[in-house]
Predict the structure.
Amino acid sequence: MTALSIAAIKARLRETRSIDRLIISPLLDEDEQAKQGQAAIDVRLGFNFCLVLASAFGSITEFQRNSQDPAFSKLYRREFCPFGSCIVIHPHQFILAQTLEYIRLPSDLMAYVAGRSTWGRLGLIVATAVGIHPGFAGNLTLELRNLGETPLTLYPGQTIAQLFFHHVTDQDMKPSKEKAKRAQYVGTVDMIPRQISSKATSRAIKKLIKRFEKYARS
Amino acid sequence: MPERAERQFCAFFLARLAHETARLKDMPFPGHSTGPKKWLNLVSGLIDTAGSYLELAGKHAIPESEASKLIREAERLGGLAYRALGHVVGSDATLIPHEIVAPLQRWVDGLKIKNTIFFRAEHLPNYELAWFDLKRWRTDLNNPSRSLIGAIDRINWPLLRVTVPGQALGMLPHYAVVGHELGHGVQDQIKPDLTQKKADLEACVQRITVRLAVSSFGRKEQLELVDILANWVDELKADAVGHLLAGPAFYFALCGYLELAGQTYGISRTHPPSDLRRRLLVAELAKGSPSHIEVFEGKTGLRITETVNSSHVPFCPPPDSLFSELKRPYGPLVAAICVELVPYLEVVASIIFAETESFVRRVAPDLIYEPRKLAHDLDSHLDLISVLVPPIEYRDSTGVHAAGLASILNVGWAALLTRLDRMNKPRGPVLSPVAGKMEQLHELLLRAVELSEARRVWEEQV
């Protein structure tokens, strides 16, 4: 699997055909965020955060009885931090954040989000769901966790993570056009997840739960 | 002297007020807006002044009658402070999208409006500019507190408050209407010379006289005419400012708002009829070569007409029928003036629009949204927004630049009116596929406003 060089990434940022263009916007300082010799683009911390709240939930379960909506939103408090303000992530705390940059991947590119080593050495993990699929459009949600023993103060605008890009090919090893044909760009709706499983998986697991409960009662 | 019950209750009331004011001061206000906090400091100053009256009323040396007077005055100031708190409701980030405030403030600054200003939203279909001039409190009140004097001195009076509809009607493309409200903020500096159409005004007066079946046009009638004409001219000035700041986006927003907000003729003592305002704006959009209308049609395929997005806003009926309809709510004099002013306003509209343009070109030439800018914006962003790329910035030979608010609003309206069919239905439960797409577009435009402003703020610092 080949990764795009900085020159290749920059070329895709300037692609004239809009459908094939890689969008990372705004790149506040292109030279700093796309340094020569790297194979990744640095992205910055955005303004929107979701802080995990203490709650009365026994556990997070998608398949509660008598509930269609697991109401994940009750697990978080939204916080908006403009430029100049900050947010502190305490040891072992988990929060959701967004990249400042809006990203849209064309049909033949996918990306991986990785932390920056400087933050990593301070104990900050920036992403656990690291793969970004072709056709993604939106600000990336980062899952921040402070594994260190010292609180870390984070400021919107700081470079927080990096994106590595890879080509996606079809069965003939040609650049994939599948998404472009159907123009299936999918924007991120929200940082807070709405559901964990697909409808089909959800239906199947609910049936399995019922079958198991029936068996247990027998 | 025993502690008077009313003094204790007033002290309790003031303490509650102070607590509530402190709570509001701790709230984040969108766009680093200092207006709401300056207003809240004014409220604190009033409370402090009232508190000092109460303190004085509690002193042993004060005669009973004087103490009673001081307590009554403290109660009155407390009431004023309580009402003043009501004016700031809706200025926090719960009803008004926080992203939009800083770009709107750039319009305010660009128009060289120096007044202290804040934006607030309410759940009413209403855009409004309210003026508050309370600096007289500095001299009218006995012994104003130091905090009240400081708060008054830190406000550039009159303080302006722009009200916009909250949440459900607060769709981002509609915010172009704010351009009209800011027009009211500069209307007194725009002085069109209407004397060149004196004969038309005399003809208008003659028609009113005939309609009222009176022999002469007396002082009362003259004052009413002057008042209504001044209101209507100010409305056209404000429309002209909105048009200059946002071009077609203002037209679409105003018409869309009129459609959703009431679908009435719109004619009253304060406002000329909606169909006239639409007609005049379309005429302005048709000016120039290429005009906004030609550019918009060329890039989107949609021709801007008078009813393009407000077909349910009715045209005014013929004058006699309109007079009959207006007589009921307004009486014959106001009805006659309103009916007969319409043709006069149509005659002088071009003078008002030209003078307004001349004013804006003088104070804020960079804010004028020209047809060539519209062409550039639609070329740069319209296809991209169909594939979910918000109009955050654009690249030209000199580098990458943040998109302006007018650009974002125009791309938004162009997409809303002509590109929804090319957008995919968003995931998740939605009221209807079209509503879902519109909501997605609203979110994209909010993101564009937020991130283009981020680029601007960043560049101002580095």
Remarks:
- Residues 5-170 of chain B form one domain.
- Chain B touches chain A through 34 residues (CB under 8 Å).
